[in-house]
Write a structure and sequence with these properties.
two-stranded parallel ribbon; TIM Barrel; globular; disordered C terminus; alpha/beta; ten-stranded mixed beta sheet; DNA polymerase, domain 1
């Protein structure tokens, strides 16, 4: 019989497994805490579980761990991790230091189906979805690295404060595993990350955005918009042909936001394509009535791309026009560009197998 990876189970599934082993449901909470809070390496480390249960679990289950194939550190302190999965496929995660936060950007797929022109990930095509364990193990692996570094340097740099599903892949295209992972992140028996500190970024998959709203997870939503008209968005984001701007805007305006929350509109600015004052004016019109803030992201170049970053003056004028229309518009500084860890630059440090 093939063994079960305990890290792929939800709390409810863990309860069913412990019941099958002849134990009460509360044992599932203990197992969850050992796995996701204490980050144990093997089942017999769960010392408050009966030996009989540990033996039973050891016969039918195991615990996975990601292998760090490579780690690169930027001059600005950003760290890019290249993880090798059990089947040899590879993904990337990025740890971004801030003044009062430490943000981990994690992947949800190997590759991506959407092929946005400004993003390197999709250029290699789609390989597969990540499992629940592979999504969560990115966080656990980086937490382990931080703890090890603190012990080695006798420092207290702190833990991951924020998680963004903004790495390789479209999170809502791997809906079931991503939602399951978020529930494990926020669970008091899981990673205990506050929902308000988790952001999911999507290119605009309308049915899945609606489903996400119904989940009532209270996480933050970011939408990669990048254009103010359908013609431009069709060219740089093929997903727009399925879900055009008018439908997307209606879906976002209907989205049930947590109290005091706003949707983040991400706008990658590309020279000569979407960076004019006319684009800014149209953007201010289509966003009217939406509780949002706007992140302006100058395009980050990558090898093989014929796109260019916008001129600084264009970015500044674009921002000022939006501010004059009473929007919160922030120019996001790219971090980790020198190690290809900036927005849109993730692929893998070696060829995707």
């Amino acid at each position: 019989m093939k063994k079960i990876n305990l890290k792929d189970l939800s709390l409810a599934e863990m309860e069913n497994l412990t019941k099958e082993c002849g134990e009460k449901p509360f044992r599932a909470c203990q197992v969850f805490e050992w796995i996701f809070q204490k980050d144990i390496c093997n089942i017999h480390e769960m010392t408050n579980l009966p030996l009989k249960l540990r033996d039973s679990l050891n016969k039918i289950a195991f615990l996975s761990h990601l292998t760090i194939a490579n780690k690169r550190i930027s001059k600005d302190g950003t760290i890019k991790y290249l993880f090798e999965l059990e089947d040899g496929k590879r993904i990337e995660s990025v740890l971004i230091p801030g003044r009062k936060r430490l943000t981990l950007c994690i992947s949800s797929q190997v590759g991506c189906k959407l092929n946005c022109s400004f993003c390197l990930t999709g250029k290699g095509g789609f390989v597969r979805n990540l499992k629940h364990s592979e999504i969560i193990d990115q966080i656990l692996s980086v937490r382990r690295e931080i703890k090890s570094s603190q012990q080695a340097h006798n420092s207290e740099a702190g833990d991951i404060t924020n998680v963004v599903l903004m790495g390789m892949g479209e999170p809502l295209d791997n809906y079931e595993n991503v939602i399951k992972s978020i529930k494990t992140m926020v669970s008091p028996y899981g990673l205990k990350i506050p929902a308000r500190r988790i952001t999911l970024s999507t290119s605009g998959l309308i049915p899945e955005i609606t489903r996400l709203g119904d989940e009532n997870l209270k996480i933050k939503l970011a939408v990669s918009l990048n254009a103010s008209d359908n013609e431009t968005r069709d060219k740089i984001m093929p997903v727009n042909r399925r879900y055009p701007l008018e439908r997307l805007m209606k879906t976002l305006k209907d989205y049930p936001l947590p109290h005091g929350s706003r949707i983040t509109i991400e706008y990658v600015m590309i020279k000569g394509i979407n960076d004019t004052l006319e684009d800014a004016s149209r953007l201010s019109i289509i966003l009217r009535g939406l509780k949002c803030k706007i992140n302006l992201i100058p395009f980050n170049n990558f090898e093989g791309s014929n796109l260019e970053a916008p001129l600084y003056n264009n970015v500044e004028e674009f921002q000022q026009l939006l501010i004059s229309k009473h929007y919160t518009a922030i120019v996001r500084k790219s971090k980790g560009a020198d190690i290809c860890a900036a927005c849109g630059q993730l692929r893998t440090g070696s060829r995707v197998k």
